[in-house]
Amino acid sequence: MSATRALRASNGLLRASSSLTKPATPAVLESRRRFAASARAMSSSFYANWEPEGPSVKTEIPGPKAKAAIAGLDKVFDTRSLNMLTDYSKSAGNYIVDADGNVLLDVYAQIASIPVGYNNPSLRKVAQTDEMINGIINRPALGNFPPVDWASVLETGILKVAPKGLNQVFTAMAGSDANETAYKAAFMWRRQQDRGGPDVDFTPEELSSSMNNQAPGASQSLSILSFKTGFHGRLFGSLSTTRSKPIHKLDIPAFDWPQATFPQLKYPLNAHAAENAAAEAAALSEVEHLITSYHIPPCAVVVEPIQSEGGDNHASASFFRGLREITRRHGVLLIVDEVQTGVGATGRFWAHDHWDLPHPPDMVTFSKKAQTAGYYFGDPALRPNKPYRQFNTWMGDPARAILFRGIIEEVEKFDLVNKTARVGDYLFGKLEKLAEKYPGQFENLRGKGMGTFIAFDSPRRDEFLAQAKKVGVNIGGSGQSAVRLRPMLVFEEAHADLLVEALEKIVKSW
Amino acid sequence: MSATRALRASNGLLRASSSLTKPATPAVLESRRRFAASARAMSSSFYANWEPEGPSVKTEIPGPKAKAAIAGLDKVFDTRSLNMLTDYSKSAGNYIVDADGNVLLDVYAQIASIPVGYNNPSLRKVAQTDEMINGIINRPALGNFPPVDWASVLETGILKVAPKGLNQVFTAMAGSDANETAYKAAFMWRRQQDRGGPDVDFTPEELSSSMNNQAPGASQSLSILSFKTGFHGRLFGSLSTTRSKPIHKLDIPAFDWPQATFPQLKYPLNAHAAENAAAEAAALSEVEHLITSYHIPPCAVVVEPIQSEGGDNHASASFFRGLREITRRHGVLLIVDEVQTGVGATGRFWAHDHWDLPHPPDMVTFSKKAQTAGYYFGDPALRPNKPYRQFNTWMGDPARAILFRGIIEEVEKFDLVNKTARVGDYLFGKLEKLAEKYPGQFENLRGKGMGTFIAFDSPRRDEFLAQAKKVGVNIGGSGQSAVRLRPMLVFEEAHADLLVEALEKIVKSW
């Protein structure tokens, strides 16, 4: 893998610190603009010492050490979905290291949830602060006993990056409960409206029937509309809106909630413009039909900006503007699930920033790269009319909220969202050439202009992912045939070169 | 509060370290037996320097600083359920400190979730280890990329305290998802059995109907049986089994699942033995009736050892043995929800240890004082027949699992479970006397022999809780009229003296 040693000399983040010691040529000025903060905060060898020089695959994966350890682990923990037994203490930046010392370029990143690299030095500092230690050992019941600095932690962290138009948050633990608490807010909001406003009390019948899980107290007359091939989590409410694969849903009771078709775009987009527009129009009209005619009418529509687990299905900004228009017109809430798309990977902080919406979504859910979770909202009416209606013991985790603040600082300091937009364009260009060179091997290449949130279909997908490990890259799949790229926000042009080189090796051998 | 200065000289934990420097009288030998490990590990002033000397209430609660801060927080975070704005950096041991510097003896402990005291010095050390920092900044997708030492973290932590007969764990984030994933395991287990075993494949009809949330793929023909006044969480599946209060359930869709009456015992127990036995027999017979005749038959029964949110409702060990017998006889799983009762507060590590069951529960869920969550199980058939059926991105949090290991070490080092049994007996004795002295003020005193997991009913409960703050104690309520005591495991006889003194002050003023 000597080719990969070029990484050190590559452009971007890794070069930045050394460029700061050179005379002020225009290129260096530009570099200084991007990395001004780093000059003050970091030693020149900071990032250079952080990452391995490149991938290095020494054994089969799993190798002998991993195999032995997995056999032991399996006695107490289900290992059938195990992908790699990972040595996190050795992993660094974009590189994941396994139990046998194999070093892989990681463009899966813990199912898209590592934001700024393994063992990020800035996050290490955050983890050592008194504030973090306090958050770890004194975990509060946030709804009852919030810490004195909770407003500040929110305002300098989670809320600093709140989507445009939204200024409040309900914190949660992970994507599933972020979505479910958003759904609960939607049900309470709508029922409160139907009841005649927040001051109208529950009827005795509502109070008593709710305890029996029956209408009218337990609302059985409202639903959440989701999209086919969408994924929103795997607890009972979120799973009722998840439509990715039967294996996610089989044998689990579900609510009788409606699903609309997500437009199935054809690629390349410019060759199928009319057809795709028609597919999106049909999908929107199906949504409107379900809103007005489904036997359990939806009080909210939940949608991912890019359906991720379902196979990286995209739709145009105009489709989402249409969805916003229809939901507003019918008094239905729009919940945008940014659990996988949020926090920069699409080249905007939130993927829905690409849509140029005239009115913001009603709620935006987040988790994964945020390392914490919750839903943003703006309309005060989305706070239920009484306390304790939306409540649980922990309501999130301040330690993880503090970490997200550190992530946001790192993202700002290194301008990582704009960088991801730039590196994504670079990577997409190279993949387009690869797709031309190997027809049929990189089909439906998608995610142009969406940062590094890129995918393609492989006719031999599972084999493709297995082969990738052998050439030093950890990649994930989604849907039936998609190879999904989910690099971290510290993924550089040099890493993109390595990645494309590796992808070519895979198909070249076939 | 000068009386509280006696605390330093009190028996138990605080005295332990100094007693180690005295000549070996029999009392000291006993003390050495209990605290042998501490002698090696800790300096003599370790615990003595840890806690404030006693409560100290200087302002109204909330005081001026808290009021100003709460107004700011409310703009971005719902504060209507706020109890005290807390300064965790100043809180220590059994004492919680608020924004205005008021110091309260805390027997609510973040809704029963602080195990070994605020700012516990041993946990502080754990939080500073490389292992913890690694867990914070490199959060894995545990099902796909578990850390190389995950088996060891489990075996020396979560699984070291596994309930008797259970040796595996599925890790989760909090109580609600711990219960919901246990329910999912129950549904998959039962459907797999009905299908003819783990090797029988899903039918095409099951595969396609599951995607539409319809039977037979999405099981609409099985339920989870729970008990009236029980609490198991507030997400959609767990909320369907929660029967505590309408405010928890109103407007949220729920599954049509059955509920049985939880025996309503009368106190004092010895004066109502026959009546209580009859109530328990009736409850068991209702369970059996629902198992055999409910139109959506249960595949599992979920029960709390002591119904906590629902008002501290107890039942006898014989009731639970009966429940185990009935569920086994009908091939229905028994899930014991130890989210609030687990980790020592009842004087046994798990509350169901009090029952002397001939067969263990099928699953035991845990969270709160464990600071992590999940469900234990033993039967390999409870692992679903295929991977990815029970899965999510994070599947828990290794950082919190490492913390639980530290908590377990602290509990063992100071023999905190046995100590809690002892202090609980001491406290209960004093409360019995108080109840005699103030008839009608401490009704239905319950939790005898259950460590510090003690409650009573107050005719002016909400006022009682508000008054408690004025005399320096933070206490929680539950159900309609219960005052529930939920001290930490570091609660000593001296704290019990303080508490009882404060409780008497409240009722004396009426």
Automatic annotation (TrEMBL), chains A, B:
Is Lipid metabolism among the key words of this record? no
List, alphabetically, the CDD domains matched.
OAT_like (cd00610)
List, alphabetically, the Gene3D superfamilies matched: Aspartate Aminotransferase, domain 1, Type I PLP-dependent aspartate aminotransferase-like (Major domain)
**Presence of keyword Transferase:** yes
According to its UniProt record, which reaction does this protein catalyse? 4-aminobutanoate + 2-oxoglutarate = succinate semialdehyde + L-glutamate
Record key words, sorted: Aminotransferase, Pyridoxal phosphate, Transferase
- The record's EC number reads 2.6.1.19
Put simply, this protein is called 4-aminobutyrate aminotransferase
Q: Which residues form a coiled coil?
A: none
Q: Name one GO cellular component term.
A: mitochondrion
Q: Which GO terms describe its biological process?
A: gamma-aminobutyric acid catabolic process
Q: Identify the stretch(es) annotated as Disordered.
A: 194-215
Task: Enumerate the SUPFAM superfamilies for this protein.
Answer: PLP-dependent transferases (SSF53383)
Q: Enumerate composition-biased segments (Polar residues).
A: 206-215
GO molecular function annotations of the record: 4-aminobutyrate:2-oxoglutarate transaminase activity; pyridoxal phosphate binding
Name the enzyme group at the top EC level. Answer: transferase
One of this protein's Pfam families, by short name? Answer: Aminotran_3
